Amino acid sequence: MSAEQHAPNKRQRELLDKHLELVIEENKVTNLTRIVDWESAQVLHVEDSLAGLPEVEEALEGPYLDMGSGAGFPGIPLAIMTGRETLLADSVGKKTRALDSFAAELGIDDIVSTYHGRIEDLALQQPNHFSLVTARALSSLASLLELASPLLAKGGRLVCYKTHSESEELEHAREIARKLGMEFVSSRGFTLSDGETSRAIIVFRKRCNPSMKLPRRVGMAQKKPF
Fold first, then answer.
1. What is the rounded distance in angstroms from the CA atom of residue 71 to the CA atom of residue 75?
2. Range of the domain at 26
3. Is 94 within the bounds of a domain?
4. Residue 16 domain-assigned (yes or no)
5. Omega of the bond prior to 74 within 30 degrees of 0, cis?
6. Alpha carbon 95 to chain centroid distance?
7. Residue 125 to residue 80: CA distance in whole angstroms
8. Cα(49)–Cα(73) distance, integer angstroms
9. What strands, in cross-sheet order, belong to the sheet with 152-162?
10. Considering its fold, how many domains does the chain have in total?
11. Pairing of β 182-191 and β 64-67
């Protein structure tokens, strides 16, 4: 699809702007983001979130999980643009309560809900459930692969938003993906409209069950990644 086909319509644009307004206002009492300047946040939060739409729209139909959702980027913008059943997960209760409030005020709480807890616990509760998982500047690729694998249905996609693409990190992730039941799909680097911020979208797909028992104990994926 062209960039025009991924552009928000008038109603979607209104919701995207309203979400950002809510985030900036809530940030006065809850630490959601360090970026509170409107123009910068439009680029670094909203535009960045929408940049993954081409990869997201290639995912199978079905429920979507945003890991470590924070202020709701990219989860809420992607829900607005795709209409997918969306679960925003975060381990901080103040953040999930804020996300619930955002979804209600935006009128999208019929498709958007939250999960307060650790991703490993969610994987035990909803194994092989999601068609799409996203993670934005959350952890290393190796850790993200391990966290996402038990959550994804076969054929489901992990779409990783990275601040940059390190060839060494990607090479390692591709090596361990197979034992985690995953396979590399694509990597795309680009620059945001400010002309200076580099980003990368990296995609993996669930091909089969992992060769080891997942999830491991809470925190192990980050502390001792494969």
1. 9
2. 12-223
3. yes
4. yes
5. yes
6. 15
7. 26
8. 6
9. 112-116, 86-90, 64-67, 130-136, 152-162, 198-206, 182-191
10. 1
11. unpaired
What contacts 23, CB < 8 A, 6 or more positions away?
A: 32, 33, 41, 45, 71, 72, 102
Query: Domain with 91 in it: what CATH number?
Result: 3.40.50.150
Rounded Cα distance, 197 and 190, in Å: 8
Q: Are 82 and 57 in contact (CB under 8 A)?
A: yes
- Smallest CA-to-CA distance from 68 within 134, 149, 8 is with 134
β-pairing verdict for 198-206 and 152-162: antiparallel
Query: Any idea which residue has 């699809």 for tokens?
Result: 1
Neighbours of 40 (CB within 10 A): 12
Q: Which two tokens stand for residue 50?
A: 């929408």
For each successive 10 residues of the chain (226 residues), what is the average pLDDT?
A: 70 98 97 95 98 97 98 98 98 98 99 98 98 93 96 98 85 94 97 95 96 86 80
153 in a structural domain: yes
Q: Is residue 68 part of a domain?
A: yes
CB contact at 8 A, 65 and 136: no
* pTM assigned to the model: 0.94
Q: Return the structure tokens found at 34.
A: 């360090």
For residue 181, give Cα distances in angstroms to 3, 66, 123, 138, 175.
32, 20, 15, 21, 11
pLDDT at 2: 41
Please list, in sequence order, all residues whose beta carbon lies within 8 angstroms of the beta carbon of residue 9, skipping any fewer than 6 positions away: none
Q: What is the DSSP string of 14-33?
A: HHHHHHHHHHHHHTTTS---
